[in-house]
Amino acid sequence: MSLAHPAGGQPLKLQSLILEAMQAADIEQVMAIENSVYPHPWTRGNFVDSLASGYEAWVAREPTFRLAGYFLAMPVVDEMHLLNISVRADLQGHGLGRMLLDRVAELARRQDMGSILLEVRPSNHRALSVYERYGFVRIGLRKAYYPAGGNGREDAIVMRLCL
Length: 163
Hints:
Radius of gyration: 16 Å
Number of helices: 4
Oligomer: single chain
Strand content: 35-45%
């Protein structure tokens, strides 16, 4: 599958993306994506702490070394908790999120995890659609889980994918 390249150059092919462990040096580009795709982004400290904790943290990089997306996941007993998954806005809707989810599932299976758990905002319709198409099912609701505009809070839909 090819992605229309934002610079108007050759289309970007998913198979040309490089998946590798996130490094501290990636945090600048990660923060640029995070701040551009979320109204309430993670902080730099969240990413630094996740790396220091040894969580599964991976990036998808274009051949030019520009980041296309990333995810962070935390193994907990017998399930993988997907903490954050993001695709650069200009590359959304072309299968990169699914490719990242494939890697999360692969890592979880390698660690003998029985499932993947995540939370998602009800207002994040695109993410909900991706997760449901991937096979995640809604299993619960966390009331007032996320910060929202005007000092409000937004619920989180809890979803699980059995492996």
